[in-house]
TrEMBL record, chain A:
SUPFAM superfamilies: F-box domain, RNI-like. It comes from the Eukaryota. It comes from Actinidia rufa. GO terms for biological process: SCF-dependent proteasomal ubiquitin-dependent protein catabolic process. PANTHER family: CORONATINE-INSENSITIVE PROTEIN 1, F-BOX/TPR REPEAT PROTEIN POF3. Residues 71-116 form the Transport inhibitor response domain. This is RNI-like superfamily protein. One of its GO terms (cellular component) is SCF ubiquitin ligase complex. Residues 12-51 form the COI1 F-box domain. Gene3D superfamilies: 1.20.1280.50, Ribonuclease Inhibitor. CDD domains: F-box_AtTIR1-like.
Automatic annotation (TrEMBL), chain B:
The jas domain is required for interaction with COI1. Repressor of jasmonate responses. The lineage of its organism: Eukaryota, Viridiplantae, Streptophyta, Embryophyta, Tracheophyta. Belongs to the TIFY/JAZ family. Its main location: nucleus. This is Protein TIFY. The keyword Nucleus applies. Residues 90-124 form the Tify domain. The keyword Protease does not apply. Keywords: Jasmonic acid signaling pathway, Nucleus. Pfam families: Jas_motif, tify. GO terms for cellular component: nucleus. It is found in: Nucleus.
Length: 595, 152
């Protein structure tokens, strides 16, 4: 075999062998391991690595990324802490894509897929991206981003003719018009996925959606903002290979509303993933003809009560993914357990707390969880808000759900007395049983998990990489016990706990794999000096001091909301960042101010 | 919680009585003792504190060293008694806070606010305060959806 590198060998085998083999390794941890074997393998990984995810954009620099991975084809960057999704982080916290886009425009000639999550993107960034990479960009995801307008999207629509995926879900976009969609429709005929779900863009024209469907014969997924569903008849008629639809709006214009008109809607034949915003009991039957084909169902923004859920779920034996609110109730979960044996992912969000707004029976408790554990054995992901819980239900989960990789439970404060607390034993059995668990969230209340319970969490969460703990433990001893375990824990988030700064610092030092820590609600010292115990090279510590923010309350009135302080700490090879807003302080400054 | 009597010498009484030359008593390093006292209070059984504060009577602006309801012999010596007089020095917005502890009496001049905070802190469980300051939050989209539903 003749090729330029034939004279380089390792252990008698030419490099080419390893280069071919390494192509089969996609998992980033495998790649990481390979790159540590020897210099030559490091070099081979360097030139062949196709995708990199940077979990926090401040851990490295665009230039460092370029120096190592010049042939990168796909990049995912994350910015703001997860708490930003719950309005807890100041808008200008940081996470600007500009330095990255500038480097991408300059250097990364192979890059064709970009995913920015919780970052600040400007119209200028989008213009630069469109100009420099427009001809090759295939995937662009602006995921929960902010800072740009539809003008920025105009550049994308005009220049990115090879774009197969445009994903904008939950981004805060300043709307100046609907021409961006029209430009996209005119210039693109390879679009497969278009998502501007939950962006509240109101000026999109349904005619442009139809045009996209006509021009892009490979369109398989479309999720849009609130556009009257009745206007989409033409769209549904044209998008013949569509498999996924989400959004739209039912009954937005009362004068056109009559349940008969919705019944005349016919959907594309391959549709297997659906979520219709504001769908109520009267419109539910439009789904029945193809309910047995449905693999994914989004009822988060529907107007269904518990009975409706039971009726609908009963008809969906092939359901793999369900997202809804806790109005599904225990009875709905029992129906799910009976009928949907293929269920892999279940997300149950917190509905309205106010009395009379939701179905009174629409509450999820240990009863529903027990049924679920026994009925849906293929579950990999559960996120649920419960009003009541027992140790037994957690034990059932640990016993039956062996495929569980991601478990998130929040105990609502609706019910004052929870009979079966603390949950120490339940969580122990759950963690022991669900040995594949990588992500774990447990948000409780005072007294629901003792220090002993926390020690169990440390002892038995052998594979967990991300953890969110809320209102757990009784004292610092609990946190210290936790931090003696959790061998693989990389990212720890804690809220409303009673731990002191000193304990937090020690825990951060003890947890062997920890690279990211976020805490809100802890026992602060006067000067935050106790936190300095965890100061060390490459470890950035930031504080968001307590703030008072004016924001509208449930009635739309402006009220002053107290935001307690946050601690954010993370490993970084880039040193302290230089783009702090005035709401965020690096710890060194804080220490200086108080001496 | 330990049942044996805990002696906390905030004001270095022992050191002084151990024969060191009498330094002009700077009374105390106010901030440090305050924090020490705070941390001691936070470790005490709140129920006991509540009963002491409740049974105490306010006379001449000071709580008399009244016995706590419990006749438990272990509790009396370890308990400091707190009082915040209803009528006190209104000089520059501060009133006097008297603490009876283990045979010693200390008086602080603190603002009414601070005194109330100390008493509140003693009566409450520390973590409860943290909980109520941090309500559960919802995702933005869901919050917006629930808002919109009310309007429909």
């Amino acid at each position: 075999m003749e090729d330029g590198k034939a004279n380089k060998t390792i252990g008698g085998m030419p490099d080419t062998v390893f280069e071919l083999v390494i192509d089969f390794l996609h998992d980033e941890r495998d790649r990481d391991a390979v790159s540590l074997v020897c210099r030559r393998w490091y070099e081979i990984d360097k030139t062949t690595r196709k995708h990199v995810t940077i979990a926090l954009c401040y851990t490295t620099t665009p230039q460092s990324l370029w120096r190592r991975f010049q042939h990168l084809e796909s990049l995912k960057l994350k910015g703001k802490p997860r708490a930003a999704m719950f309005n807890l982080i100041p808008e200008d916290w940081g996470g600007y894509v500009s330095p990255w886009v500038e480097e991408i425009a300059r250097s990364f000639s192979c890059l064709n897929a970009l995913h920015f999550r919780r970052m600040i993107v400007t119209d200028l960034d989008l213009e630069l991206l469109a100009q420099s990479r427009g001809q090759v960009l295939q995937i662009l995801k602006l995921d929960k981003c902010s800072g740009f307008s539809t003008d920025g999207l105009l550049h994308i629509g005009r220049s990115c003719k090879k774009l197969k995926t445009l994903f904008l879900e939950e981004s805060s976009i300043i709307e100046k018009g609907g021409e961006w969609l029209h430009e996209l429709a005119l210039n693109n005929n390879v679009l497969e996925t278009l998502n501007f779900y939950m962006t509240y863009l109101a000026k999109v024209r349904f005619q442009d959606l139809e045009l996209i469907a006509r021009n892009c014969r490979s369109l398989v997924s479309m999720k849009i903002s609130e556009c009257e569903l009745l206007d989409l008849v033409g769209f549904f008629g044209t998008a013949s290979v569509l498999e996924e639809f989400g959004g739209g709006s039912i009954g937005e214009q009362p004068e056109r509303y009559s349940s008969e008109s919705y019944c005349s809607l016919s959907f594309p034949p391959k549709l297997c993933s659906l979520g219709l915003t504001y769908m109520g009991r009267n419109e539910m039957p439009i789904v029945f003809p193809f309910a047995s084909l449905l693999r994914r169902l989004d009822l988060l923004y529907a107007f269904l009560d518990m009975e409706d859920h039971c009726l609908l779920i009963h008809r969906c034996p092939n359901l793999e993914v369900l997202e809804t609110r806790n109005v599904i109730g225990d009875r709905g979960l029992e129906v799910l357990a009976q009928c949907c044996k293929r269920l892999r992912r279940l997300r149950i969000e917190r509905g309205e707390d106010e009395e009379g707004m939701e179905d009174e029976e629409g509450l999820v408790s240990h009863r529903g969880l027990i049924a679920l554990a026994q009925g849906c054995l293929e579950l990999e992901y559960i996120a649920v808000y419960v009003t009541d819980i027992t140790n037994a239900s957690l034990q059932y989960i640990g016993t039956y759900l062996k495929n569980l990789c991601d478990f998130r439970l929040v105990l609502l404060d609706r019910q004052e007395t929870i009979a079966d607390l603390p949950l120490d034993n339940g969580v122990r059995v759950l963690l022991q049983g669900c040995y594949k668990l990588k992500r774990f969230a447990f948000y409780l209340r005072q007294g629901a998990l003792t220090d002993v319970g926390l020690s169990y969490v440390g002892q038995y969460s052998l594979n967990v990489r991300w953890m969110l703990l809320g209102s757990v433990g009784e004292s610092d001893a609990g946190l210290l016990a936790l931090s003696k375990g959790c061998p693989r824990l990389q990212k720890l988030e804690m809220r409303a706990c009673c731990f002191s700064e000193r304990a937090l610092a020690i825990a951060a030092l003890q947890l062997p794999s920890l690279r990211y820590l976020w805490v809100q609600g802890y026992r602060a010292s006067e000067t935050a000096s106790d936190l300095l115990a965890m100061a060390r090279p490459f470890w950035n510590i930031e504080l968001i001091p307590a703030r008072r923010v004016v924001s509208p309350n449930a009635n739309g009135q402006d009220v002053i909301v107290d935001h307690p302080a946050h601690i954010l700490a993370y490993y970084s090879l880039a040193g302290q960042r230089t783009d702090f807003p005035n709401t965020v302080l690096p710890l060194d400054a804080v220490a200086l101010l108080n001496t | 919680m330990s049942r044996s009597a805990v002696e906390l010498d905030f004001f270095r009484m022992e050191k002084e009585s151990a024969g060191k030359p009498q330094q002009p008593k700077k009374l105390f390093d106010r901030r440090r003792s305050f924090r020490d006292i705070q941390s001691v209070i936070s470790k005490m059984n709140p129920e006991i504190l509540k009963s002491v504060i409740a049974t105490g009577s306010v006379e001449n602006g000071n709580l008399l060293a009244s016995k706590p309801k419990d006749d438990d012999p272990f509790l009396s010596p370890a308990l400091p008694l707190l009082s915040a007089p209803a009528f006190g020095n209104r000089v520059s917005g501060t009133t006097s806070l008297t603490i009876f502890y283990n045979g010693t009496i200390s008086v602080f001049d603190v603002s009414l606010n601070k005194a109330e905070n100390i008493l509140k802190l003693a009566a409450e469980n520390v973590s409860k305060t943290v909980d109520s300051d941090l309500p559960l939050t919802r995702g933005k989209s869901l919050e917006r959806f629930l808002q919109k539903r009310k309007e429909r």
